[in-house]
């Protein structure tokens, strides 16, 4: 079975650990959000690409949820002593090497797709990791802060300001001109199953679906598409989806998360605590599977992946 997964964030990393236990990793392609990429200290930082890479390579920090295991932050700590305002984005020392390597290759004219493949190879990852696009896209969050309207990069909103501001609008700057990265549409067209990971539907998967041709590719193969809700019991398991979904007209629930992918889903997986929402979701023509979706370890993630793939119709 060939599987293509759309991914971003901690939930995706956990799920992918299970997915590559459920099917051979060589049969998996992961299309990753790059709209939260940011330049820090002159370096190209790709948080979701790196998160997916570290989780699949088993070098992730499960307790913290992001970054490398056994990481140190000496460089960031020293920068904070020089200029606290410049050190709001925590870059670990091991993580810093990834960003240095990526930035050098990009400046040499390599594409983000090629650089991502090289980084994955360095970590011995057998599945294929693709950025959603080689073209720049940025999630921008317009907020009301202390009576002022601010237009923030997603990382400024989430990391620097800790999602404390009232969100007025979310947009994906540059997505109109962005083309799918090489291999993205082909991976969607040839997959036996397409999985929407339990990611933030606005900040993680929304940008991928906004890239030209991606939404259409999923709609054309709807019966092969299964998604897993990252909203359980009316709240996100991680992140700030509850702050962003209402702005996009989405209810903060497993049903609201399914609505974010209207017209794209053949099946949708929700947690046991949301079983009462199944009839409502099924009324939209989507098959619903109910199971334990809390991925406490790789075995639980594998069980969830097998359950989700079992809902896909040939």
Largest sheet: 7 strands, parallel
Distance between the termini: 11 Å
Tell me the name of the CATH homologous superfamily of the largest domain. Answer: CofD-like domains
From the alpha-carbon coordinates, what is the Rg to the nearest angstrom? 19 Å
Low-confidence stretches: none
Order of strands side by side in the largest beta sheet? 5-2-1-9-10-13-14
- Overall average pLDDT: 97
Query: Which of globular, elongated, flat, extended, rod-shaped describes the shape?
Result: globular
CATH topology of the largest domain: Rossmann fold
Query: What structural class results from the helix and strand content?
Result: alpha/beta
Number of domains: 2
- Elements, N to C (H/E): EHEEEHHHHEEEHEHEHHEEEHHEHEH
Q: Hey, roughly how much beta strand do the residues contain?
A: 15-25%
For this entry, give a set of tags.
314 residues; alpha/beta; Rossmann fold; 3-stranded antiparallel beta sheet; globular
């Amino acid at each position: 079975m060939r599987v293509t997964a759309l991914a971003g964030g901690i939930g995706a990393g956990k799920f992918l650990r299970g997915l590559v236990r459920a099917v051979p990793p060589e049969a998996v392609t992961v299309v990753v959000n790059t709209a939260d990429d940011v330049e820090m200290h002159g370096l190209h930082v790709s948080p979701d690409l790196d998160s997916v890479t570290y989780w699949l390579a088993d070098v992730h920090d499960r307790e913290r949820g992001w970054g490398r295991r056994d990481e140190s932050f000496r460089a960031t700590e020293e920068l904070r002593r020089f200029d606290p305002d410049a050190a709001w984005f925590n870059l670990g020392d091991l993580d810093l090497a990834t960003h240095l390597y990526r930035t050098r290759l990009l400046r040499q004219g390599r594409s983000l797709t090629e650089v991502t493949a090289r980084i994955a190879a360095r970590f011995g990852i057998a599945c294929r990791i693709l950025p959603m696009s080689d073209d720049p896209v940025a999630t921008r969050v317009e907020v009301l802060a202390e009576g002022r309207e601010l237009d923030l990069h997603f990382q400024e909103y989430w990391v620097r300001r800790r999602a404390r501001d009232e969100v007025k609008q979310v947009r994906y700057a540059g997505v109109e001109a962005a083309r799918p990265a090489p291999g993205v549409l082909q991976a969607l067209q040839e997959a036996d199953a397409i999985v929407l990971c339990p990611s933030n539907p606005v900040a993680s998967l929304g940008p991928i679906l906004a890239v030209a041709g991606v939404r259409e590719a999923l709609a054309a193969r709807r019966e092969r598409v299964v998604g897993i809700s990252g909203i359980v019991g009316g709240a996100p398991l991680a992140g700030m989806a509850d702050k962003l979904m209402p702005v996009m007209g989405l209810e903060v629930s497993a049903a609201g998360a399914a609505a974010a992918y209207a017209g794209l889903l053949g099946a949708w997986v929700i947690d046991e605590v949301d079983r009462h929402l199944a009839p409502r979701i099924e009324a939209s023509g989507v098959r619903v599977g109910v199971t334990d979706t809390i991925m406490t370890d790789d075995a639980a993630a594998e069980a969830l992946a097998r359950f989700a793939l079992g809902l896909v119709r040939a």
